[in-house]
Design goal:
Leucine-rich repeat, LRR (right-handed beta-alpha superhelix), 4 helices, 2 domains, about 10% strand, single chain, mainly alpha, 5 strands, two-stranded parallel ribbon, signaling receptor activity
């Protein structure tokens, strides 16, 4: 931002401003800000550039935080900065402090979701393949057990023999 109001004193009060998001460049040009108050807004995420080496206090309470792996990683990258951040979404974390959610649980939820989507599809595909194989076996066995299938296979051989006999008879009849 341009020189922010209050930044000269090292404290930036942005509480109760109905902020929905902060620009990616927020505080990028400011090296003297030590305290930032962003409570009682409608923020859902933090820009990566917000956490500055000079920042000692960051107040983020009463926002609509979307607790994600990225947000957790951003906050944990600054262990000296204690921030209380209560989750609004996803629903299963609503009301939980982001710092209390195990990283593995929050960051691997997408792979579990993919597993629960792919697993039923694979089971359906396997069931269809089994049904297809069973039908094919039943069809294969029924052809072998039906007498007309044997006749159908015998007919070409008989026709070929008959054709040879006729050809032989024709040569014998047309001879000198």
């Amino acid at each position: 931002c341009q020189p922010c109001p209050g930044a000269s004193s090292g404290v930036l009060y942005l509480d109760r401003n109905q902020l929905q998001e902060l620009p990616e460049s927020f505080l990028r040009a400011s090296t003297q800000v030590q305290e930032v108050y962003l409570g009682f807004n409608a923020l859902t995420f933090l820009p990566a550039g917000l956490l500055r080496p000079s920042l000692l206090q960051l107040q983020l309470s009463n926002n609509s935080w979307d607790c994600s792996c990225a947000l957790l990683s951003t906050l944990r990258s600054w262990p000296s900065l204690h921030v209380e951040l209560v989750c609004h979404t996803p629903e299963r974390y609503r009301g939980a402090d982001l710092q209390s959610i195990p990283r593995d649980e929050l960051c691997h939820s997408h792979s579990l979701t993919a597993l629960f989507i792919c697993l039923p599809l694979l089971l359906i595909l396997a069931s269809v393949a089994c049904c297809f194989c069973r039908r094919k076996r039943k069809t294969h066995y029924s052809f072998q057990s039906r007498p007309e299938s044997h006749l159908a296979m015998a007919e070409p051989e008989e026709a070929e023999r008959a054709g040879r006999e006729r050809a032989g008879d024709g040569e014998g009849q047309g001879g000198p």
